Amino acid sequence: MQELLLSDYNIQSIYSTDSFLQTNSKLISKNNVPVIEVKSEELEAAGTFQTNKAALALAKIKENIPQTIEKGEYAIILDDIRDPGNFGTILRIADWYGIRKVVVSLSCVDLYNPKVINASMGSFARVNVHSTDLPYFMRKNPGPYYGTYMDGDDVNTIQFYDQGYIIIGNESNGIDHLLSDLVDYRIAIPRYGRAESLNAGVATAIICDNLRRSIAP
């Protein structure tokens, strides 16, 4: 809730327990948002958490504003990520590594799925997400585009440019073939054991860590 209050979301109203209101009164009053005091049982009945002794907020969904990179910036592209836990975790990872823009395919799970919001641990309020047709987006916006593949170049040896896009593919099928011709660099996380694949969130974290070490001043 604090992340939402500190974000640029348009909050319409807050439903809060007395204890949350007392603890966050200055932050709430700064946002000039109507507050309705309720009991924790009412919050639990209205929301998706089994227990909620804090608050719920009613906020407007943001406009689907295009997200393109500026000089010295990276963004993550998600192609057909279906698992809400993966999506939310990737938003959290992007936030951790200072990546503020995520572009997703039209087939990705909805940003406002409760499981996405929960898994993001508040990062959804700090990372801007744009849903669009990815082939059109990639043709329109210059890269470079780094796509994750099983047979790509070892990410540990890649020297990333100072700006670009990282593409994470579908959990089962990887990056769609319609995007492959638009990918500038195929990168891979080397496998040393016998596991068939990595979770999309784990793979994103490894790629982002290599990215940051590669372009660090």
Architecture blueprint of SSEs:
Elements: H1 2-5, E1 11-16, H2 18-23, H3 25-31, E2 35-37, H4 40-46, E3 55-59, E4 74-78, H5 84-96, E5 101-105, H6 114-120, E6 128-132, H7 134-140, E7 145-154, E8 164-168, H8 177-180, E9 185-188, H9 200-215
Parallel strand pairs: 1-2, 4-5, 4-8, 5-6, 7-8, 7-9
Antiparallel strand pairs: 1-3
Helix pairs in contact: 5-6, 5-9
Estimated helix fraction: 25-40%
Largest sheet, in brief, is: 6 strands, parallel
Silhouette: elongated
Q: Could you name the CATH class of the largest domain? A: Alpha Beta
Mean pLDDT: 92
Q: Helix segment count?
A: 9
Strand content: 15-25%
DSSP summary, beta strand count: 9
Which class of secondary structure composition applies to the elements?
A: alpha/beta
Ranges where pLDDT stays below 50 over 5 or more residues in a row are: none
The N- and C-terminal alpha carbons lie at a distance of: 35 Å
The CATH superfamily of the largest domain is known as SPOUT methyltransferase, trefoil knot domain
The largest beta-sheet arranges its strands as 6-5-4-8-7-9
Helix and strand pattern: HEHHEHEEHEHEHEEHEH
CATH topology description of the largest domain: Alpha/beta knot
Which tags fit this structure?
three-stranded mixed sheet; Alpha/beta knot; 33% helix; 2 domains; six-stranded parallel sheet; 217 residues; alpha/beta
Please outline what is shown here.
The chain has helices at residues 2-5, 18-23, 25-31, 40-46, 84-96, 114-120, 134-140, 177-180, 200-215; strands spanning 11-16, 35-37, 55-59, 74-78, 101-105, 128-132, 145-154, 164-168, 185-188.
